[in-house]
Design goal:
The chain is of the alpha+beta class. It has 6 helices and 4 strands. It has a single domain, classed as NADH Oxidase, CATH 3.40.109. It is globular, with a radius of gyration of 17 Å.
Length: 173
């Protein structure tokens, strides 16, 4: 099986981490993977904020039900849509999703654990104040990253027959 397929199939959301710091080189590799995601017109509509400071993490933890994950991770990366470079909300949001997926796969490949936190979007105004973001940036997610202190659950997936159709909806593939 090709390596990239193995990485995709083995990636899990990891919510518990050791206290070991993440090397700056690994952080740069993760961010580099993100910037190589596809985007419409190659507009690269993303901005990232790297967070390692425990005080900032504690403040961010107050913005989510998943505060324990936020405070325990040695590294957080806030992912933003830059509305000033945006040309189509749907396409640019999809590009952000591709960048996030690239980061998650890079983490897996580096032997790191990560989880995509979306519930924190409910408090995006507070997050933006904490991170001193201009109004032109729209919070899309925060990734919590660290050395895994768990294996992660093996999620179930729907059978292809229930989600894939041939030629027209309802036809067997």
């Amino acid at each position: 099986m090709p390596e990239v397929i193995e990485t995709i199939l083995s990636r899990r959301s990891i919510r518990k981490y050791t206290e070991e710091e993440i090397a700056d080189e690994d952080t740069r590799t993760i961010l580099d993977a993100a910037r190589w995601a596809p985007s419409g017109l190659n507009n690269q509509p993303w901005k990232f904020i790297v967070i390692k400071d425990k005080g900032t993490m504690k403040e961010l933890a107050g913005c989510t039900h998943y505060s324990q994950i936020v405070q325990a991770a040695p590294l957080l990366i806030a992912v933003y849509l830059d509305t000033e470079t945006m040309y189509n909300k749907t396409k640019d949001t999809q590009a952000i999703g591709a960048a996030i997926q690239n980061m998650l796969l890079a983490c897996c490949d580096l032997g790191l654990g990560a989880v995509w936190l979306g519930e924190i979007l409910n408090q995006s105004d507070k997050v933006n104040l904490i991170l001193n973001c201009p109004e032109s940036l729209e919070l899309m997610a925060i990734l919590a990253i660290g050395k895994p202190d768990e294996n992660g659950k093996s999620p179930s997936r729907k059978e292809l027959e229930s989600i894939v159709f041939g030629e027209k909806y309802g036809n067997k593939f």
